[in-house]
Known about the structure:
Blueprint: E1 2-4, H1 13-18, E2 21-29, E3 32-33, H2 35-48, E4 56-63, H3 68-81, E5 84-85, E6 90-93, H4 98-115, E7 139-141, H5 147-152, H6 166-169, E8 187-195, H7 201-212, H8 214-217, E9 221-228, E10 239-245, H9 248-256, H10 258-268, E11 272-281
Parallel strand pairs: 2-4, 4-5, 4-6
Antiparallel strand pairs: 1-7, 2-3, 2-7, 8-10, 8-11, 9-10
The structure holds flavin mononucleotide.
Flavin mononucleotide (FMN) binds near residues 27, 62, 63 and 66.
Amino acid sequence: MEVVSRPALTASAPDVLEADGYLLGTPVNLGYLSGALKHFFDQIYYPSLDETSRRPYGAYLHGNSDAAGALRALDSITTGLRWRAVRPPLVVNGDPAKADLEACWELGATVAAELAPSDPPPTRTLPPSRALRRSGAPVLRRSRASPARRAEAPRSDARLSTRPSARRCGRGCGGRGGRYGDLMSGFRHVVMFVWAEGTTTGQQEEVAARLGELPGVIPQIRSYSLGADAGIGADNHDFVVVGDFASEEDFLVYRDHPAHRAVIDEYITPILAGRAAVQYEL
Ligand SMILES: Cc1cc2nc3c(=O)[nH]c(=O)nc-3n(C[C@H](O)[C@H](O)[C@H](O)COP(=O)(O)O)c2cc1C
């Protein structure tokens, strides 16, 4: 896996067209993406529109309190480009802790795993400190080199080899003290909803939109994934939320956070017919 890193101000449409996936980074200033990342999108939007549809991307945002506006902008731009988020954007508020840097590392690895060939090269890890860059728009590129050439690649090359199983297993694979050690520790909350008869698509989309804003306002959320059921199983639930936290305490902060409670009271409870939930340590 080859990683090409570009500052957002100089990343160009050819860089984007040539890459197979994207990892975007930005501070949150004045309620929006950095001017540099906005400039990046201005430059690449139309030249990339047709050719980069469905390509995977991840994004990390660094603010100090409220990333909601930046998240909205990012969502609308990447929806227009039809890029596919491998995870919800990662929001880091305040000084990045070790867990934040690890989450950034994992975000990059998840994008890379999307691009991994079926016979992936041997693992090589990127130190977490390299993952959080200011206004960078690093571009991940699937390596087209042969396995032999990959093995010879000089260490100074910015290359990222990803864990072959990351795509299948996600954070939970291995558990605490398992193959990925501390990286995997944390606390996961999974909740599924059944909507009441007569619930409209608009109401469901409103729930998704409101929940999707929570990572921007609740810094304890390490990663957050939500989605409507694909409709394959007749007795499935209708909607799922998977949230990862550094600890049970952080989960409880999320559970009781006023912004979360407001979404529950205003958007979920009125259309709720059934609920199932599990919390477990990773
Ligand atoms: C002019 C200005 C506006 C800011 N606006 C926001 C904001 O809207 N939301 C937020 O969460 N943080 C805001 N911040 C805080 C920065 O995002 C924060 O300092 C962050 O650490 C910057 O990231 P960086 O150190 O990676 O550049 C603002 C900072 C400045 C200087």
